[in-house]
Inositol 1,4,5-trisphosphate receptor-interacting protein (Hylia prasina), 547 residues
Amino acid sequence: MPVGLFRVCLLVITAIVNHPLFFPKENGTVPENTEEIIQKMKEREESLRLEQLRLEQEIADQEATQKALEKAAVVVEESKEEKVRWDIWTALSMVIFLLIELWRQDFQEGNWQDTGGEEDDMAVLGKAFKGVAFPDKAVLASFYEKRILATTGDMARMREMVEGFADDLLEALRSVCNRDADMEVEDCMGVGSMYENWRVRKPFVCDLIVPFAPPEPYCFCCQTWCSGDSFPPDEQGYGTIKVCRADEDVMGCICDKTKLGEDMLCLVHSQVSSTRPSSEMEDLLCFKNTQYLDADQVMKWFQIAVTKAWNRISHKYEFDLSFSLLDSPGALKIKFKSGKSIAFNLTPVVQYENSDVYFISHFPRSSLAADIPSSTHWFLTFAVYERRFIQLVSKTLPANACHVSCLQILSFLHGKQCSLTGPSGLTNYHLKTVLLHLLHARPSQDWAPEKLEARLQDMLKFLEKCLHEKKLYHFFIGNGKVPAELGFPIIFQRAEPLNLFRPFVLRRDVYRKMVDTFHEMLRNMSALINEYTVHIPLAHTNGIRKE
């Protein structure tokens, strides 16, 4: 009961205390403050909504950026894969190209001179032979005996006489030269058709080469087109000769290639030894302001030296000696009182290292060096190795083999045709190169004397093929199958094959003239041979003699 009464009293007191009349009037502004609060709450809500929109926009931008980055990464990855694929294809293409090039070189080295191996291959050629009456064996045998052998019987005696006189002349030349300042002349060597026994047309001319060397302490440093130096394609087959001191680096010191300051001194070369007066190099027959040997200067010096030498020994002989051709400085002629004369060429050459390859100043009576780039460019001659190769192969051939006879007949026909229609770009050296290729390609028994007709046809057909393709490769340059017994320098075997017909590719008029001359020679062949052949019975089967 008391508890219930207490609760009722507490309730009444609470109601009285909370009655509105007990609050002061200033508390009557509560409704107005509530509206402000509500307004602020709305503003806050609006700002929160805007902030939410901004955050959503930022999140969307970040997602777009992330997608762009992922897409760019995919593109980069694809480009990398594409690049890798492209690099693989490029590398594969290069490998295929290199393999093809290696195969081409191997094929070229292995087959470019294998031109006469099969009779069927030769039968495919010879379009120009259609309608041409080729002389038979008997007619060729008679022609060779009556025309070739009858006119070449005195060659051996002539060679002996010329060599003896040339040795005497060079000995006198050494005596008139200054041993301390002039070039040192060595013994001469016979090369060419007269010493390979296939020259047939008169006048007979002996070709002698004379190696020479500079005085001490100088030496020749030879550079060829295939020795790693930069030579343009039109200078293949040429080289340069640098005159150096024996104690000088062949490649040259850097002080020769770099301008040193006035206060700088090369520790290898002193100032005195590093510079040479131009007059000193000109005395060494070099081109003006260079160290390179000048072919024109060499020929002038050689002419003067030969003239002095002849003046010293002329009283010993009962004939006169003179220079026969103005455009061939080494062309000499012996004139006897009877009116007869003997011509020979004495040409100075420079030995290439320790080989029998020589730099030759000029080619007498030849168009091989008609377009020499400059007087400091010297053509290389392999005449000594050519003579040795013919001698080496001749030892393996049957007795009285027909290889020299083929070249003699072909050279005679070509010379006769040129006398009728004028000279052409085709030379006897081209004919000799054809023979060298066939000698290397055909077995020894194919050169028996009774096979003269077949081998002569092979040479003509091979020459026709070369004219058609405008390709006749030098026999030694680029030929890896040169017999090791010759001791031929390996640098020339590894070089690119040298096309002797390359000058005719751009000179179409010369090429046309050469082809026309060849075809005219084929058409006139029977007439030219019959002109020098007497009538013989059909049973004539005598072998062909060789000198």
Observations:
- Residues 30-111 form the longest helix (82 residues).
